[in-house]
Amino acid sequence: MKSKIFMYLFVFATLIILFQFVNSKRVFEDMNNKLGAHKAQLVTYKDSLIVLQNDILEVSHFNLERNEDAISYFENDGYKIDELIPFIKDELYKLNEVKGEHPIVPYAASEGRKMLINTVKMLNHKWIVADFSDGEYWGEIFLTYEITKEKELKFNLVEYFLYPFD
Fold first, then answer.
1. pTM higher than 0.70 for the full model?
2. How far is residue 162's CA from residue 112's CA, in Å, rounded to a whole number?
3. Interatomic CA distance for residues 114 and 62, integer angstroms
4. 129 vs 63: CA distance, rounded Å
5. Residue of 10, 95, 120, 147 with fewest CB within 10 Å of its CB?
6. By the 8 A CB rule, do 93 and 105 touch?
7. Which helix (H) or strand (E) holds 96?
């Protein structure tokens, strides 16, 4: 009787061990498959990150904040670049508040609207690109700017265009 109980316990323990082995093998294979998928996804993300970093580097090439020569130009005149850039942009945006037609945008707005400068990109210590719109028509302008010896900011419209309306 005692030997039969030990036999049943031995068979039962063997079945439990076999079940645990098969189950853990399945879990281990599943984890390996997930790990392989995550590694492949990580490689894809790293490649995408490199492409995006290259795109950012290319886009930021014409950018005052990354142009050491342009920054030195202003710093040699005693300006702090982190205060000057927002000041110049704000002065350009303030022109949106002028009564009547916009003093820089050379196009008249459609009925009941006003042309407003929306986005400003400072290319270097002399050039600005901006876009404008009245909600229906839109375009872009190319400006030069300078800070005179009297510390006045002057904008000069160089080139402009209006996108065709469909």
1. no
2. 19
3. 29
4. 11
5. 10
6. no
7. none
List CB contacts of 161: < 8 A, sequence separation 6 or more: 139, 140
- Counting beta carbons within 10 angstroms of the beta carbon of residue 130, is it exposed (0 to 12), middle (13 to 18) or buried (19 or more)? buried
The owner of tokens 């872009």 is 140
**Which amino acid, 138?**
W
- Cα separation, 159 vs 161, whole angstroms: 7
Name residue 6's amino acid. F
What is the per-residue pLDDT across 22-78, written as a single tens digit (0 to 9) for each? 888 888 899 999 999 999 999 999 999 999 999 988 887 888 888 888 889 889 988
Q: Which residues have C-beta within 8 Å of that of residue 135, sequence separation ≥ 6?
A: 110, 113
